[in-house]
C-alpha cells in the first residue's frame, strides 16, 4: 500500500515573499513600515526578545505566531522540510510530502527584492534531488507571470522531467482561476492528468495592492464565456465592485477570485481536470457558522457546501478537496467523518498546510488529533489511498 | 598670570569633558557591538546588500541563489545563520556556479519499485560554457546585458576566459561592498544616537552639569586631566600600530583602562564569528562592566541619586542639603552651593537638564574614534603651553 502522503504543505521561506508581505497583518496606517518591520523581525535576536516577553506575559497567541515566524524565517527550504518530516517520524521515513510552491511575485505593486518564483523553484529542485522518493513539489503559477503556450511549455518541461508533479494556483493573490491566460495550461493538465491544487478558503494571504489594480473588468470573459455559471459570477463581481467594504479592503475583496463557483466554467470546459479545492471551504464554513464574515452580505454562499456540490457532480470525476488547515479545529471532525464515509469520501485528501498551521498548534499535535478523531482506517483512506490516486492516478 | 595659565581651567575642563565622552563612547560602542551581534546585524546587512546587487526581477534574484551555493551555505555557523563576511573569490566562484547551474537540468527516472533516480544533464561542457549558455537563456533584462557584456569583454561566447571574468566579478563585488560599508556606517550612526541616548539617560549624564562641576572642582579636574594625558599617550601609540583599521571594542577599552594588558589587535569580525555566541555575550558584559567601574572609580559627576536631578525634584524622593558646613573651603562651598541650587525644582532646571542629556546623546553619537582623536589634539594643545606649576600641598 502507498505510504502516508501529506498532500498540502509548504516549505518556502520568508525570503520568497515580498518585503512588504507583512502588510497582510498590519493596520493600514503602518503599511509603509512593513518592509522595515519585516527586516526587523527577520533578526533571530529580536524574535528571542519578543519570545521572552510573550512567555512572561503568557501570551499564547504571540508565542504561536513566533513559532510560525521562526519556521518561515529559516534560511533554507531544506530546514523547513526537515522540521516537517520530523513531525511524521511515527509513520516512518517513507512519508511523502506534496510541497506547494507559491508565486508571490505579483502580490502587490511595490518593488521588492525577494527570492523570485524561479529562485524558489530552483531551491526546491535541489531539495527534490536530495529526497527524490518523498518530496513531490508542485509548480506555483500565476497568469501575470506568464500565460498561454509559454506557461504550458514552462510547466511541461518541469513536469516531464519529474522534477515537479503538479500545479499550484492561488487566486487570492489577484486573478480569476478562469483567466484566459490559464486556458492552455488547463487543457494540457487535463490531457496529461497533471494534478492542480488551488487555494479555496476565505482565509490566507491575498493581494495587497488596490482592488482597482486587479479587478479590471466588470465582465471578465474568461476561458469559457458561455458557461452556465458566468452570469452568476458576473453578478457577484458586480456586487463586489459596488461595495465599499470590498473595494477598500482587499482581504474581503480577494474572495471574489477565490470563490469555488469560479471553477465551474473551467470544469464545464475541462470535465476531466484533476483539481483539488483545498481546505474544504474552511472550518468556519464547514461548521456552517458566522455569516457575517461573508463580506457583509455581498457573498453569503457557504463555500464548503459549494465545494461539496462540485465533488458530488458526476460530470467532474476528478474534483478533490483536502482538509488542510481546517483540521486544526476539533469540531470539524464529526462532519469530516460523515463525508469521508460518504460517496465523496474517495476524493477527500489528507493535507495539513504545514507550516501555516503553526499559528494554531504544532504539527505533531495536529497529526495526532487527526488520526485519533478520524480513526486509523479513515486516516489511511485519505492519507494513503486518496492522495496516491490524486498524485499518480488510479 | 600669563595667558596660558589663564586659559588652563577652561582647557582642562574641555579635556576632562572630552575624556568623559571618550569613555562613554567606548561604552556605547560595546553596547552597539553587543546589539549587532545579538541580532546578527552584519550577516543580515550583507545578505540584503547582495539581494540588492544581484536582483534581476525578470529572471532571478541571484543573491538568493548564491546563499544556497555550498561554499556560502557551508559558512553558516548553525545551519541557519548568515555569514558576516564574504571573500571576493568566494563570491565570484559562487555567482559563476549558480548562473552556470541554470544551464543544467536534473530529470528523474522511476524504478520498478516506484523510487526515483536523478539523472543530471548538461554537465558535458565546461563551467564557462554552461555560464555562457545560461546567460543566453535568460529573459532580456538589464542584468542579462550586464553579464553578456562581461562575457564579451573576456573572450566572448566562444573563448570565454573564466578567470578574467571572475576577476571582474571580484572587483564589482569589492566596489559594491565599499559602498555598502558606507551605508552600513550611516545606519550604525542612527543606532549610535539611540544607544547614546540610552547611556545618557541610564547614567544621567547631563553635559552642562559636568562642565560646571569640573570647572568648579579643581581636584576632580586635575585628576581627570592626569588620566586624560595617559589615555592620550596610549591612543597615540595604538593609532600607529593599528594604522587604518577600525578599533575593536577591546582595543578601545584598553585605551582607557590601564589595568588591561595590551589589546588584541587580531580581534576582527572573522575571529568574532568563530567564537561562540555565549562567549561573546560574556565578553560584552565584561567590557561594559569594566567601563562602569572606571566611571565609578574616576568619581565623575553623573549617575542617579536622591540628591541629584531629576529624582531630587520629587518632594517624596528627593533629599536636600541642610546647610553648607562652614569648615569647608570657599571653593568647596561654591561646589556645594551649586549642587544645592541644582537639586531644587525649577522649569529652567528641567529645561537645562533635558538639553544637557540631548547634548550628551549628540556627543556620544559621534563615536569613540572621534573623541579619542579630539582628546589627543586638546592634550597636545595643553602640552604646547606653559607647564602648570607643581601643586603646593
Walk me through what this model shows:
- The complex is a heterodimer of chains A (394) and B (393).
- By secondary structure, chain A is α/β, with parallel strands linked by helices.
- Chain A has helices spanning 34-41, 44-57, 60-72, 77-87, 117-130, 148-160, 183-192, 211-214, 230-242, 244-248, 250-253, 255-258, 264-269, 283-286, 303-312, 333-341, 363-374, 376-392, and strands at residues 5-9, 96-100, 135-141, 166-169, 196-198, 275-277, 319-322, 348-349.
- Chain A is globular, with a radius of gyration of 20 Å.
- Chain B has helices at 3-38, 41-53, 62-66, 70-73, 88-101, 127-137, 142-153, 162-202, 207-216, 218-242, 249-256, 269-274, 277-297, 330-343, 347-364, 368-384; strands at 105-110, 116-121.
- Chain B has a two-stranded antiparallel ribbon with strand order 1-2.
- In chain B, helix 1 crosses helix 8 (162-202), helix 5 (88-101) crosses helix 6 (127-137) and helix 11 packs parallel to helix 13 (277-297).
- Residues 1-6 and 260-279 of chain B have low confidence and may be disordered.
- Chains A and B meet through helix 2 and helix 5 of A and helix 2, helix 3, strand 1 and strand 2 of B.
Helix content of chain A: 40-55%
Number of helices of chain A: 18
How much of the residues of chain A is beta strand, in percent? 5-15%
Low-confidence stretches of chain B: 1-6, 260-279
Arithmetic mean pLDDT of chain B = 83
**Numbering strands along the chain, what is their spatial order in the largest sheet of chain B?**
1-2
The chain pair forming the largest interface, with residue counts per chain, is: A-B, 30 and 37 residues
- Overall mean confidence score, pLDDT of chain A: 92
* Element order of chain B: H for helix, E for strand: HHHHHEEHHHHHHHHHHH
Shape of chain B: elongated
Amino acid at each position: 500500500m502507498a505510504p502516508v502522503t501529506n498532500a498540502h504543505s509548504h516549505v518556502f521561506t520568508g525570503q520568497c515573499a515580498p518585503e512588504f508581505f507583512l502588510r497582510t497583518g498590519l493596520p493600514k496606517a503602518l503599511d509603509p513600515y512593513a518592509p522595515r518591520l519585516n527586516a526587523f523581525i527577520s533578526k533571530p535576536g529580536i524574535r528571542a526578545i519578543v519570545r521572552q516577553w510573550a512567555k512572561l506575559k503568557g501570551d499564547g497567541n504571540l508565542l504561536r505566531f513566533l513559532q510560525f515566524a521562526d519556521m518561515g524565517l529559516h534560511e533554507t527550504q531544506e530546514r523547513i522540510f526537515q522540521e516537517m518530516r520530523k513531525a511524521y517520524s511515527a509513520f516512518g521515513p517513507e512519508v511523502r510530502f506534496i510541497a506547494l510552491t507559491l508565486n508571490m511575485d505579483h502580490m502587490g505593486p511595490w518593488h521588492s527584492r525577494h527570492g523570485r518564483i524561479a529562485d524558489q523553484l530552483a531551491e526546491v529542485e535541489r531539495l527534490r534531488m536530495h529526497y527524490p522518493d518523498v518530496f513531490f513539489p508542485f509548480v506555483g503559477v500565476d497568469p501575470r507571470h506568464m500565460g498561454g503556450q509559454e506557461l504550458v511549455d514552462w510547466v511541461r518541461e518541469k513536469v516531464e522531467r519529474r522534477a515537479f508533479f503538479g500545479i499550484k494556483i492561488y487566486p487570492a493573490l489577484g486573478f480569476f482561476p478562469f483567466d484566459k491566460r490559464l486556458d492552455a495550461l488547463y487543457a494540457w493538465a487535463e490531457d496529461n492528468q497533471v494534478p492542480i491544487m488551488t487555494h479555496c478558503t476565505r482565509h490566507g494571504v491575498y493581494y495587497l495592492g488596490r482592488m482597482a489594480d486587479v479587478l479590471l473588468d466588470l465582465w471578465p470573459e474568461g476561458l469559457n464565456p458561455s458557461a452556465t455559471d458566468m452570469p452568476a459570477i458576473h453578478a457577484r463581481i458586480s456586487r463586489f465592485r459596488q461595495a465599499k467594504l470590498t473595494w477598500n479592503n482587499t482581504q474581503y475583496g480577494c474572495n471574489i477570485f477565490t470563490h469555488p463557483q469560479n471553477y465551474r466554467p473551467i470544469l464545464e470546459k475541462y470535465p476531466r481536470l484533476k483539481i483539488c479545492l483545498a481546505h474544504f471551504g474552511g472550518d468556519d464554513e464547514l461548521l456552517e457558522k458566522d455569516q457575517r464574515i461573508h463580506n457583509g452580505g455581498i457573498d453569503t454562499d457557504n463555500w464548503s457546501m459549494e465545494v461539496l456540490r462540485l465533488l458530488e457532480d458526476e460530470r467532474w470525476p476528478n474534483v478533490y478537496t483536502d482538509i488542510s488547515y481546517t483540521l486544526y479545529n476539533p469540531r470539524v471532525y464529526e462532519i469530516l467523518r460523515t463525508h469521508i464515509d460518504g460517496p465523496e469520501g474517495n476524493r477527500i485528501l489528507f493535507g495539513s498546510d504545514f507550516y501555516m498551521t503553526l499559528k494554531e498548534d504544532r504539527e505533531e499535535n495536529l497529526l495526532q488529533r487527526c488520526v485519533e478523531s478520524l480513526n486509523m482506517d479513515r486516516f489511511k483512506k485519505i492519507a494513503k489511498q486518496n492522495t496516491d490516486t490524486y498524485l499518480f492516478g488510479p | 598670570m600669563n595667558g596660558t595659565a589663564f586659559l588652563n581651567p577652561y582647557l582642562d575642563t574641555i579635556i576632562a569633558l572630552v575624556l568623559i565622552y571618550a569613555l562613554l563612547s567606548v561604552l556605547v560602542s560595546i553596547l552597539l557591538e553587543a546589539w549587532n551581534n545579538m541580532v546578527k546585524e552584519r550577516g543580515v546587512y550583507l545578505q540584503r546588500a547582495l539581494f540588492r546587487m544581484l536582483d534581476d526581477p525578470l529572471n532571478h534574484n541571484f543573491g538568493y541563489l548564491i546563499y544556497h551555493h555550498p561554499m556560502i551555505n557551508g559558512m553558516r555557523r548553525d545551519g541557519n545563520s548568515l555569514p558576516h563576511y564574504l571573500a571576493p573569490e568566494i563570491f565570484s566562484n559562487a555567482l559563476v556556479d549558480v548562473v552556470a547551474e541554470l544551464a543544467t537540468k536534473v530529470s528523474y527516472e522511476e524504478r520498478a519499485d516506484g523510487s526515483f533516480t536523478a539523472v543530471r544533464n548538461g554537465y558535458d561542457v565546461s563551467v564557462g560554457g554552461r555560464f555562457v549558455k545560461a546567460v543566453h537563456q535568460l529573459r532580456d533584462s538589464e542584468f542579462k546585458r550586464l553579464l553578456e557584456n562581461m562575457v564579451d569583454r573576456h573572450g566572448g561566447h566562444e573563448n570565454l576566459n573564466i578567470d578574467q571574468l571572475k576577476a571582474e566579478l571580484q572587483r564589482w563585488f569589492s566596489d559594491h561592498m565599499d559602498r555598502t560599508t558606507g551605508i552600513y556606517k550611516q545606519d550604525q550612526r542612527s543606532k549610535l544616537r539611540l544607544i547614546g541616548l540610552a547611556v545618557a539617560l541610564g547614567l544621567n549624564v547631563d553635559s552642562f552639569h559636568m562642565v560646571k562641576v569640573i570647572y568648579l572642582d579643581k581636584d576632580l579636574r586635575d585628576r581627570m586631566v592626569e588620566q586624560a594625558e595617559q589615555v592620550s599617550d596610549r591612543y597615540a601609540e595604538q593609532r600607529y600600530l593599528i594604522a587604518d583599521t577600525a578599533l575593536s571594542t577591546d582595543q578601545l577599552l584598553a585605551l582607557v583602562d590601564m589595568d588591561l594588558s595590551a589589546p588584541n589587535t587580531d580581534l576582527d569580525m572573522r575571529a568574532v564569528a568563530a567564537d561562540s555566541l555565549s562567549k561573546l555575550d560574556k565578553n560584552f558584559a565584561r567590557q561594559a562592566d569594566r567601563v562602569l567601574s572606571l566611571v565609578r572609580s574616576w568619581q565623575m559627576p553623573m549617575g542617579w541619586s536622591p540628591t541629584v536631578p531629576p529624582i531630587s525634584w520629587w518632594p517624596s524622593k528627593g533629599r536636600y542639603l541642610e546647610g553648607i558646613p562652614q569648615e569647608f573651603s570657599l571653593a568647596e562651598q561654591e561646589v556645594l552651593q551649586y549642587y544645592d541650587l541644582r537639586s531644587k525644582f525649577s522649569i529652567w532646571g528641567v529645561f537645562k537638564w533635558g538639553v544637557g542629556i540631548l547634548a550628551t546623546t549628540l556627543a556620544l553619537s559621534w563615536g569613540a574614534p572621534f573623541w579619542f582623536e579630539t582628546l589627543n589634539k586638546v592634550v597636545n594643545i595643553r602640552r604646547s603651553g606653559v607647564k602648570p606649576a607643581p601643586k603646593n600641598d
